[in-house]
Amino acid sequence: MNSPDVVIAGAGIIGVSLALELRGRGASVLILERGEPGQEASSAAAGMLAAFAPETPELLKPLARESARIYPEFIHMVQNASGSSTDFRRQGTVALGKVQTAAPEYHEISEQALKQLEPSIVTNGLPAYLVAEASVDPVLLMRAVVKAAERAGIEIRSEAELVDARPRGEDIQAVTSHETISCRALVNCCGAWSGMPVRPRKGQMLYVQPPKSFQLERVVHAPDAYIVPRSSGNVLIGATVEDVGFDKTVEDLAIQTLHRAAVRFVPALASATIIQTWAGLRPGTPDNLPIMGQTAPGMFIASGHYRNGILLAPITAKIMADVVTGRQPAFDLSPFSPARFKREKLHSLRG
């Protein structure tokens, strides 16, 4: 496909979800990926769909809540189209620690009542809240969206890094190290590699295998760690937040610190076996808000989702499909406009 309607640079959850939305609207779509699909921030995420977290920037909350609302529909579409499970779980979250701002979705629960629901959790004297949030396994989700895209006729080219993009008449020329592709529109979904001002924020995390008798249904959001149970029986523990550039080194001290933080609130995890450790690079911006919109005629960006890429994928796909096809989005995008970083070259890409 050398003259698709839309070229998307970046085969993470944002890029592939957008491709599926555009394909559903009749566009031909080609995805260019510098490495392999979904192997950066998307597969390295925890998958907590924390739409109501008080720390979410106020300007982002309407998008976060709408994306959470449509997530079941998104999961249904992806699983049907791919024939694959995503381990979408709706058991909710136990949040531990004082909520600093009013959050009506946070329902305080006594320690005794919590013990009835989740015997493995101890509060250490902190207030506990129940939150009706879901979670998903990002690795399974990425496999499913990639398979759904391929079945929909969307080509994904791996090891095809976009190195330049330039207008030619009414078209855009997308240039890789191997070829030049003409398209009507180009969307930069390259995550931490999107170019300034999007920068990587490293997150280290681990998977543990608890004893067979271990039971935990809900996500636990504690002060120094989050604990995410999977249907497989394994448990994810995360995560650090580090501004160290493109360094993905996994450090034993960080992993052990996270493990101990989780054990403080779920003591049964003390005997759990660490079975996997890794680090991912979240795409952050100076104001912790994503960048969505047009950067030049025929050129667009959807990046900088930081810790909310998995959550925001469905709503970002719908919004950016509207923007790319010239429709009016249902949300005011001015807080996320590339123009707020007008001195930066948002359509340029880091190699």
Account of the 3D structure:
The protein is of the alpha/beta class and 351 residues long. The radius of gyration is 20 Å and the shape is elongated. α1 (13-24) crosses α6, α2 (61-82) packs across α4 and α2 (61-82) packs across α6. The protein has an 8-stranded mixed β-sheet with strand order 5-6-4-14-15-16-13-17. It has a 6-stranded mixed β-sheet with strand order 8-2-1-12-19-18, with helices on one face. The chain has 6 helices and 19 strands. It folds into 2 domains: 6-81 and 138-198 and 286-341, FAD/NAD(P)-binding domain (3-Layer(bba) Sandwich); 93-131 and 199-283, D-Amino Acid Oxidase, subunit A, domain 2 (D-Amino Acid Oxidase, Chain A, domain 2).
Any idea what the CATH architecture of the largest domain is? 3-Layer(bba) Sandwich
State the CATH topology of the largest domain.
FAD/NAD(P)-binding domain
As laid out across the biggest beta sheet, the strand order is 5-6-4-14-15-16-13-17
> Could you state the order of secondary-structure elements as H and E?
EHEEHEEHEEHEEEEEEEEEHEEEH
How many helices? The count is: 6
Keywords:
19 strands; D-Amino Acid Oxidase, Chain A, domain 2; 6 helices; six-stranded mixed beta sheet; alpha/beta; 351 residues
Task: Provide a quick synopsis of the model.
The protein is of the alpha/beta class and 351 residues long. Helices cover 24% and strands 26% of the residues.
